[in-house]
From TrEMBL, chain A:
Lineage: Bacteria, Pseudomonadati, Pseudomonadota, Gammaproteobacteria, Oceanospirillales
One Pfam family it belongs to: GatB_Yqey
A single GO BP: glutaminyl-tRNAGln biosynthesis via transamidation
Full protein name: Aspartyl/glutamyl-tRNA(Asn/Gln) amidotransferase subunit B
Family designation: Belongs to the GatB/GatE family. GatB subfamily.
Domain of life: Bacteria
Keyword Transferase attributed: yes
From TrEMBL, chain B:
Keywords: ATP-binding, Ligase, Nucleotide-binding, Protein biosynthesis, Transferase
Lineage: Bacteria, Pseudomonadati, Pseudomonadota, Gammaproteobacteria, Oceanospirillales
Function statement: Allows the formation of correctly charged Asn-tRNA(Asn) or Gln-tRNA(Gln) through the transamidation of misacylated Asp-tRNA(Asn) or Glu-tRNA(Gln) in organisms which lack either or both of asparaginyl-tRNA or glutaminyl-tRNA synthetases. The reaction takes place in the presence of glutamine and ATP through an activated phospho-Asp-tRNA(Asn) or phospho-Glu-tRNA(Gln).
EC numbers for this chain: 6.3.5.-
Superkingdom as given in the UniProt entry: Bacteria
Natural source organism: Marinospirillum alkaliphilum DSM 21637
GO BP annotations listed: glutaminyl-tRNAGln biosynthesis via transamidation; regulation of translational fidelity; translation
NCBIfam families in alphabetical order: gatC
Pfam families found in the cross-reference section: GatC
Reactions this protein catalyses: L-aspartyl-tRNA(Asn) + L-glutamine + ATP + H2O = L-asparaginyl-tRNA(Asn) + L-glutamate + ADP + phosphate + 2 H(+); L-glutamyl-tRNA(Gln) + L-glutamine + ATP + H2O = L-glutaminyl-tRNA(Gln) + L-glutamate + ADP + phosphate + H(+)
InterPro entries linked to this entry: Asp/Glu-ADT_sf_sub_c, GatC
Assembly notes: Heterotrimer of A, B and C subunits.
Name the record gives this protein: Aspartyl/glutamyl-tRNA(Asn/Gln) amidotransferase subunit C
Length: 482, 95
């Protein structure tokens, strides 16, 4: 039987405000426990929450970026459940009238294609505190610094059919929120968290299978692994004559498996009702229009510009637009060097490889766009060849000089195009290797192509990599003929 | 609409309230009579009426995003029965 997976994601994005969603407490990461939790965050009697305007603005910006409807009115509700890290006994959230309505996102896939994923809605809510289950004499420790931190929960439609698509969607959300500057998107610190709803059905069947929700998948890699594992588990279960039970499962990255969380009979009985402490939020058209005008160029638009105006491949455009910092770096190199394709090759090639090797982000790259552009200029005007360019790049990276020109000068990497000088080197090489020259001349013409490589290598070495490779090839061929 | 003892105990459990067995009868009757009132209201035609989210005819005022609070941990933790290393301690919760 051919199976099809159906996946929907709920993504929690921590908004990059200064203060909490309903109080003036700081949301800075890493503070001493409970030093950023005031009477409102603690749910003391008689306090009143007041909504943070920045949280509203950020949610709307996200909505505009995913082509969503922004309703004139939105309402906060109470989601009721008991847990020690939820001091009020309810989470202030939104249900019937969320701040962002139906929208969609076109995501680039690895094969260069585009997949449209609909976004059901996005709503504002507050985060809960943190429970620490280490040993406190058989008790649980509670840190409420995180309680009241503003979150935007983005709920997709079940439009994805593979773990890879789910990862691509999550990356697209990550790119949008960081482009907009509404979140730092730091998954390790929990700024972006993801729950996945996964079900399977026979290919071609309309009706959805029973789904399981996987919690706690907090890195791009784990999202892919957890979903793939869950799809496989469900298929094997059904093929063995079993039935999928609707449940919440927790992903364990150490064992690479999901396991059922405690069955929660009443867990879905949250008894939502409008929060009497908060009035309905009303937004006027002019305000939304104003925010629309402040939106930066978004990944989708960048991708389009890179392919249509700069002539890049869909793949390169996808990679370069995946983060705002990378796209801006690339744009700057293009602006200064005037050659988009060469810039794309270097940014996605040498530069990205070096970033990966050192495990750092583009923001920390020791080579500035101005320096890279300076290097590309010397490639364009044939001052250096490709091999020397890599040496110059490595030297820039290591901080051995400020500009490409400085390094080219210091290391003597200037390309030799003067035929006379190259001929002199070739003559030396041929004189030093008489046996190889004999062999070459005795060989069948079709075998000579391979043998010439030896001489090219020797000449390049003797010229310290500065000889123009085309010139070397041409002159060598002539001289070897004798 | 009336509710029975089972409904009552389910709702009480969700609200973490304990109800003495001898009070079950009294609470089911009281809650049923509130629900009858709701039934009566349900009969009113409300097509085209936007559900009321708040009794006041006003909209939410927004706060400027700035940190106005300082650390009050010491004062606030005086209210807690147990604390350690800055954490509030509660009976163990196991997932």
């Amino acid at each position: 039987m051919q199976w099809e997976a159906v996946i929907g994601l709920e993504v929690h994005v921590q908004l990059a405000t200064q203060s909490k969603i309903f109080s003036g407490s700081s949301i800075a990461f890493g503070a001493e426990p409970n030093t950023q939790a005031n009477v409102i965050d603690l749910g003391m009697p008689g306090v009143l929450p007041v909504l943070n305007e920045k949280a509203v603005e950020m949610a709307i910006k996200f909505g505009l970026a995913v082509h969503a409807e922004i309703p004139e009115r939105s309402v906060f509700e109470r989601k009721n459940y008991f847990y020690p890290d939820l001091p009020k006994g309810y989470q202030t959230s939104q249900m019937a009238e969320p701040i962002v309505g139906l929208g969609y996102l076109d995501i680039p896939l690895e094969d260069g294609g585009i997949k449209r994923v609909r976004i059901h809605h996005a709503h504002l809510e507050e985060d809960a505190g943190k429970s620490l289950h280490e040993d406190f004499h058989g008790m649980t420790g509670v840190d409420l610094n995180r309680a009241g931190t503003p979150l935007l929960e983005i709920v997709s439609e079940p439009d994805m059919n593979s773990a890879r698509e789910a990862v691509a969607y999550l990356k697209a959300i990550h790119a949008i929120v960081t482009y907009l500057g509404i979140s730092d998107g730091n998954m390790a610190e929990g700024s972006l968290r993801c729950d996945a709803n996964v079900s399977v059905r026979p290919k071609g069947q309309e009706k959805l299978g029973t789904r399981c929700e996987i919690k706690n998948v907090n890195s791009f890699r784990f999202v892919e692994k957890a979903i793939n594992h869950e799809i496989q588990r469900q298929i094997e279960l059904i093929e063995d004559g079993g039935r999928v039970i609707q449940q919440t499962r927790l992903y364990d990255p150490d064992l690479d498996e999901t396991r059922a969380m405690r069955s929660k009979e009443e867990a879905n009985d949250y008894r939502y009702f409008p929060c009497p402490d908060l009035l309905p939020v009303e937004l006027d058209e002019a305000y939304i229009q104003h925010l629309k005008e402040t939106l930066p160029e978004l990944p989708e638009q960048k991708r389009q510009r890179f392919t249509e105006q700069l002539g890049l491949s869909a793949y390169d455009a996808g990679v370069l637009s995946s983060s705002r910092a990378l796209a801006e770096y690339f744009d700057r190199v293009v602006e200064l060097s005037g050659d988009a394709k060469l810039a794309a090759n270097w940014v996605t090639g040498e530069l990205s490889a070096q970033l990966n090797r050192e495990g750092i982000e583009i923001e920390q790259a020791p080579v500035a766009p101005e320096q890279l552009a300076g290097l590309l200029k010397r490639l364009q005007d044939d001052t250096i060849n490709g091999k020397a360019a890599k040496q110059v790049f490595a030297a820039l990276w290591a901080g051995e000089g400020h500009t490409a020109d400085e390094i080219i000068e210091a290391k003597g990497l200037k390309q030799v195009t003067d035929t006379g000088a190259i001929e002199a080197v070739i003559d030396e090489v041929l004189a030093a290797n008489p046996a190889q020259v004999e062999q070459y001349r005795a060989a069948e013409p079709e075998k000579r192509g391979k043998m010439v490589g030896f001489f090219v290598g020797q000449v390049m070495k003797a010229s310290k990599g500065t000889a123009n490779p085309q010139a070397v090839n041409q002159l060598l061929a002539k001289k070897l003929e004798g | 609409m009336t509710i029975n003892a089972e409904d009552l105990h389910k709702v009480a459990h969700l609200a973490r309230l304990s109800i003495e067995p001898e009070a079950t009868e009294r609470y089911t009757q009281a809650l049923s009579s509130i629900l009858s009132l709701v039934d009566e209201m349900q009969a009113v035609p409300t097509d085209g009426v936007q559900p009321m989210a708040h009794p006041m005819d006003a909209t939410q005022r927004l706060r400027i995003d700035e940190v106005t609070e300082t650390n009050q941990r010491e004062t606030l933790q005086r209210l807690a029965p147990a604390t350690e290393k800055g954490l509030y301690l509660v009976p163990r919760v196991v997932e």
